């Protein structure tokens, strides 16, 4: 794809699609601003180079045609202004134009998902938006898995279409890890359900040297390898799929290192009493809620020897202290590893914050669904649209 820093933006009207879909509390206060901060380098580049800058994003999943009180980007405009040290004007009705932006100025265009036709990638809407600018920049990696008018259609009609700095960094980091990794390549896929990560597991089983599974996913794999898991969360209907993944890995000399010891309790609660036992001692009423210390040590060793690490999902119920040991030890191993590591997904980001290792992870993706779809090996429509323009 063409990149923003290859383009002369001086005196040009630049339209940036960012992903500023940030979490807010009930009063509308932004509780986590990573995505706004991640959008700054592209905006700053455009401002420093004398462009007139328009930015838009979706926020939430509003009903098209109205901007409800929870839908407005007003709090985002305030935060962005603080980060850019200049006022950021919010433009309410912008699709038809009629507003002015001067070179060196930046405006935020209200929630693009409130425009009728955005989600269906309406061509008329995309053409109108394209007519507002000289250069279209897609910097919304977090929304790259959606083919909407601001992420896809507009890229076909704008005079120039390119990837912003964040989009470029995300594509580079993920491609490096998945398509040209330093080996061994180790993936950690945790979470509660195999079903929600089945495509990722299958796609990674083809590429990685070690596939560490955690949480409910590991339980289904334990079942597949003939272990008893008591009342642990698992999907018995996917045992065959888990078996096939293990067979596929084995056939090419790769492995799925399963837990040898586990932490169990009879309930998932803050008061639950945790027991560390061998995986062969799991009783009929036990629930596996974390990996045990022997397993954590083994996984840490694998991580220490890795060349590249891809991390999505915890290996235990890390929100509760008595079941956080495994995820904590893995986080620490990733932080100390020489490997290039990438991490993404809501739970993973929460674990990174909890164990204070953000500085030590090679690359933290701003994508949730987009990160997962990239791992699945899917072509993300927003990136495909930029590629098509580049090769045309
Ligand atoms: C996200 O938060 O994953 C992105 O902003 C995409 O949001 P969406 O799932 O509502 O399209």
The average pLDDT value, as a whole number, equals 97
Strand proportion, as a percent range, falls in: 15-25%
Cofactors and ligands: 3-phosphoglyceric acid
Note poorly predicted spans. Answer: none
Count of domains? 2
Biggest sheet: strand arrangement: 3-4-2-1-5-6
The CATH architecture classification of the largest domain is: 3-Layer(aba) Sandwich
CATH class division of the largest domain: Alpha Beta
Structural class by helix and strand composition = alpha/beta
Helix content: 25-40%
| CATH topology-level fold name of the largest domain | Rossmann fold
Largest sheet: 6 strands, parallel
DSSP strand count: 14
Catalytic activity: (2R)-3-phosphoglycerate + ATP = (2R)-3-phospho-glyceroyl phosphate + ADP
Binding site for ATP: 197, 319, 345-348
Enzyme class: transferase
Family: Belongs to the phosphoglycerate kinase family.
Descriptive tags:
binds 3-phosphoglyceric acid, Rossmann fold, 392 residues, single chain, 6-stranded parallel beta sheet, elongated, 2 domains, 5-stranded parallel beta sheet, 15% strand, 13 helices, alpha/beta
Question: What do you see in this structure?
Answer:
The protein is an alpha/beta fold and 392 residues long. It has 2 domains: 4-166 and 380-391, Phosphoglycerate kinase, N-terminal domain (Rossmann fold), CATH 3.40.50; 183-338, Rossmann fold, CATH 3.40.50.1260. The chain is 37% helix and 15% strand. The chain has helices at 34-48, 74-84, 123-130, 149-157, 165-179, 194-205, 215-224, 239-251, 293-304, 325-336, 346-354, 369-375, 381-391; strands at residues 13-17, 52-56, 89-91, 106-109, 135-138, 160-163, 185-189, 210-213, 261-265, 275-278, 287-291, 308-312, 340-343, 363-364. A 6-stranded parallel beta sheet has the order 3-4-2-1-5-6, with helices on both faces. Helix 6 (194-205) links the parallel strand 7 and strand 8 (210-213). Helix 4 runs parallel beside helix 13 (381-391). The radius of gyration is 23 Å and the shape is elongated. The termini are close together. The structure holds 3-phosphoglyceric acid. The site of 3-phosphoglyceric acid has 8 residues, from loops.
């Amino acid at each position: 794809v063409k990149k923003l820093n290859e383009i002369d933006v001086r005196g040009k009207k630049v339209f940036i699609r960012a992903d500023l879909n940030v979490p807010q509390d009930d009063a509308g206060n932004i509780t986590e601003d990573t995505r706004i901060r991640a959008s700054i380098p592209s905006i700053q580049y455009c401002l420093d180079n004398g462009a007139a800058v328009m930015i838009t994003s979706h926020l939430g999943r509003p009903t098209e045609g109205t901007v409800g009180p929870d839908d407005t980007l007003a709090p985002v405009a305030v935060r962005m202004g603080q980060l850019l040290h200049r006022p950021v004007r919010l433009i309410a009705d912008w699709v038809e134009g009629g507003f002015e932006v001067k070179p060196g100025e930046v405006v935020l265009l209200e929630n693009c998902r409130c425009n009728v036709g955005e989600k269906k990638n309406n061509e008329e809407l995309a053409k109108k938006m394209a007519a507002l600018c000289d250069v279209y920049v897609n910097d919304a990696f977090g929304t790259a898995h959606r083919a909407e008018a601001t992420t896809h259609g507009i890229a076909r009609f704008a005079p120039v279409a390119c990837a912003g700095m964040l989009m470029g960094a995300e594509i580079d980091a993920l491609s490096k890890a998945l398509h040209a990794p330093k080996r061994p390549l180790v993936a950690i896929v945790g979470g509660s359900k195999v079903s929600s990560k089945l495509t990722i597991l299958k796609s990674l089983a083809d590429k990685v040297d070690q596939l560490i599974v955690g949480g409910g996913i590991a339980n289904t794999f334990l079942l597949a390898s003939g272990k008893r898991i008591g009342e642990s969360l698992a999907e018995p209907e996917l045992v065959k799929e888990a078996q096939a993944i293990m067979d596929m890995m084995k056939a090419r000399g790769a492995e799925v290192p399963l837990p040898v010891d586990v932490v169990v309790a009879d309930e998932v609660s803050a008061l639950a009493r945790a027991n560390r036992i061998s995986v062969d001692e799991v009783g009929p009423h036990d629930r596996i809620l974390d990996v045990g210390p022997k397993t954590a040590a083994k996984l840490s060793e694998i991580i220490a020897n890795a060349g590249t690490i891809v991390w999505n999902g915890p290996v235990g119920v890390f929100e509760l202290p008595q079941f956080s040991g495994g995820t904590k030890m893995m986080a620490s191993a990733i932080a100390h590893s020489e490997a290039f590591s990438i991490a993404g997904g809501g739970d993973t980001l929460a674990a990174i914050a909890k164990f204070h290792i953000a500085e030590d992870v090679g690359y933290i993706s701003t994508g949730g669904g987009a990160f997962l779809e990239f791992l699945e090996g899917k072509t993300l429509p927003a990136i495909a649209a930029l590629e098509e323009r580049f090769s045309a």
